[in-house]
Specification:
By secondary structure, the chain is of the alpha+beta class. The chain has a single domain, classed as Frataxin/CyaY (Metal Transport, Frataxin, Chain A, 2-Layer Sandwich). 28% of the residues lie in helices and 34% in strands. It has 2 helices and 6 strands. The protein has a 6-stranded antiparallel beta sheet, with helices on one face. The protein starts with 7 loop residues before the first helix and ends in a 6-residue tail after the last helix.
Length: 112
């Protein structure tokens, strides 16, 4: 679980900054390969008009949840690393996960 002491204002700022970085990374990607939309607090990356990778904030637990295909990850903010890290402590970092899924699914590179 994320640091219970994290203020909601900081949490919201971190989510907004993360979404902005991801959105910017996809600016020059062919929308037929991958396209980002942000709606009602969720960020969705649509790959080839069928597969969706979804990021959704979970304010009560101060996490970002990611769903793709039949998998799901929960990420806590790690202030020491300055990154969202999986809560199962498997070393999965959100930024790298999105980059890897984009490369594998859309066959295109993004740098977040």
């Amino acid at each position: 679980m994320a640091d219970a002491m994290m203020e909601e204002k900081l949490y919201r700022k971190l989510v907004d900054e993360t979404y902005a970085r991801i959105d910017k990374a996809f600016e020059n990607v062919d929308p037929d390969r991958a396209e980002v939309t942000i709606s009602q607090g969720a960020l969705t990356i649509v790959f080839g008009e069928r597969l969706k990778l979804m990021l959704t904030p979970q304010p009560p637990v101060r996490q970002l949840w990611v769903a793709f295909r039949d998998r799901a990850w929960h990420f806590d903010w790690d202030a020491g690393r300055g990154a969202w890290m999986d809560d199962r402590r498997q070393g999965v970092e959100l930024q790298k996960l999105v980059e890897d899924m984009t490369r594998e699914t859309a066959r295109t590179e993004v740098r977040i």
